[in-house]
Amino acid sequence: MDEQFVTVQDVGKKLGFSHSHSHRNIKKRFSDIIIRKRGPSGHSVYQIPVNKEQEVLDYFNGINTIPAPGRQEGNSAARRVKTTFESQGWVAHILTPDPPGTPDLIMHKDGVTRYREVKARGDGLRKEQWAEILRLRVLGFDAWVCDDEGIDWPTM
Predict the structure, then answer these.
(1) Is-above-0.70 flag for pTM?
(2) Cα(90)–Cα(110) distance, rounded to whole angstroms?
(3) Which of 76, 80, 116, 139 has its CA 20 to 30 A from that of 17?
(4) Cα 143 to Cα 49: distance, rounded to the nearest angstrom
């Protein structure tokens, strides 16, 4: 069976990139996996293997699962929620807050990716956190705010 591909342009659209921004940035970072083919009219079409698309999306969405130097991985509430989701079979990572607004957790299970911002009851979201959750939802991700027990807030 032939390997399946997605165009760099289509991946760029999912990220909100312009056509030229897609090519320049995606090709620069992922030149080792990009395939160049000829389109029907003879123009170049740059493609990425479908099984690498999520890696590219994650990279450009600012996902960084490595804690900053000297910083403990997440706050205690995020660590508790991470443990709760891991007990349910999720592979969970605490994200560093770079860029500002990045949710506390990213989780994967059965081909599903979830993002969660962990807040104590009564705490509110900063503008950057709200904007990032909305941006992730527009991109098709399951992104919510949850309390320190992992229960999603219903009022979003």
Answers:
(1) no
(2) 9
(3) 116
(4) 26
Mean pLDDT, the chain, as a whole number? 79
15 near 63, Cβ under 8 Å?
no
- CATH for 76-146, options being 1.20.1600.10, 3.40.50.300, 3.50.50.60, 3.40.1350.10: 3.40.1350.10
The sheet with strand 105-109 has its strands ordered as: 91-94, 105-109, 112-118, 142-146
Q: 8-43 burial by CB neighbour count: b if 16+ within 10 A, else e?
A: bbebbebbebeeeebbebbeeebeeebeeeeeeeee
In the numeric block, which tokens belong to residue 63?
């996902």
Write the pLDDT tens digit of every residue in 36-73: 888 888 888 889 999 988 888 877 765 444 343 334 45
Q: How many CB atoms lie within 10 A of CB 87?
A: 10
Amino acid of residue 127: K
Instruction: Of 30-34, 84-88, 144-148, give the range with the top mean pLDDT.
Output: 84-88
Give the pLDDT of residue 87: 93
